[in-house]
Design a protein that fits this description.
By secondary structure, this protein is α/β, with parallel strands linked by helices. Helices cover 20% and strands 27% of the residues. It has a six-stranded mixed beta sheet, covered by helices on one side. A five-stranded mixed beta sheet has the order 1-2-16-8-3, with helices on one face. It is globular, with a radius of gyration of 17 Å.
Length: 247
């Protein structure tokens, strides 16, 4: 059994044809993409999804979302989000406390994978706009999966940053607790998605800083942190998948 990956699912009402949403764990090693994907990233993506075209970005903590398909050259460009409706495309972003956000158009089949930290919060709105323009996706048909990230229990920030975050994303996005201001990425992204008309939002219940299974910039430190790799692949029949056992 491969214990280096976890399957995130799409909540209790996960449809049988939902895209595969996966995240590497800290024990898998450093899965960073910048400036170029680490060797283990290329090895693992080829092993897990041997027939898919792996697409990645040079992440800059922005709200830039790019479209990737059979005729689009998005791989290696600067940005923090990818959308596609191409069944041969495997989307990837790296995270280490920031939130991987997965979007799936249940009617049209389009999907997105986003890297959303405090600087890039709001990128989900940009992805929804691009999915609508590119594929005709409607918000009420979108399901959202908010992957493991640092939670408010560990995300203490300066007061000025907290107030700015709350002004843009609502009072629930920044709370004062236990003597410190704290950001809540789940609350912020949920509010954004709900305001845009997305009805199904599921947040994976884990804090990357608290839970040592995950890589964490805050817990491991600037000089020693590793990155995890989030992957979003199209649904495929069980017998046709590559090997990707999870814990």
């Amino acid at each position: 059994m491969n214990r280096g990956w976890i399957s995130l699912g799409w909540g209790e009402d996960r449809a049988p044809n939902a895209p595969t949403a996966m995240l590497s764990l800290a024990c898998q090693g450093d899965m960073r993409l910048k400036p170029r994907p680490a060797a283990i990233v290329l090895e693992e993506t080829a092993r897990l999804f041997p027939s898919r075209r792996f697409v990645w970005l040079r992440q800059e903590h922005t709200r830039v979302v790019l479209r990737s398909g059979a005729g689009d050259a998005a791989a290696g460009l600067a940005g923090d989000g990818l959308v596609t409706d191409d069944p041969q495309t495997l989307l990837g972003v790296s995270v280490a406390d920031c939130m991987p956000v997965f979007l799936w158009d249940t009617a049209g089949g389009g999907r997105a994978l986003l890297h959303s930290g405090w600087k890039g919060t709001g990128i989900a709105r940009e992805a929804l706009k691009l999915m609508k323009a590119s594929y005709g996706s409607r918000p009420e048909n979108i399901r959202a999966l908010l992957g493991p990230s640092i939670r408010s229990c560990c995300y203490a920030v300066p007061q000025e940053r907290a107030r700015s975050f709350a002004e843009e994303f609502g009072e629930d996005a920044a709370v004062f607790r236990d003597g410190a201001w704290r950001l809540d990425l789940v609350a912020a992204n949920t509010k954004i998605l709900k305001a845009e008309g997305v009805l199904g939002v599921f947040a994976y219940p884990a804090c990357t800083c608290c839970d040592a299974r995950f890589s964490s910039y805050r817990r491991q430190g600037k000089g020693g942190y590793t990155c995890m790799l989030a992957l979003c692949a199209p649904w495929q029949a069980e017998g046709r998948r590559g090997r990707h056992n999870t814990i």
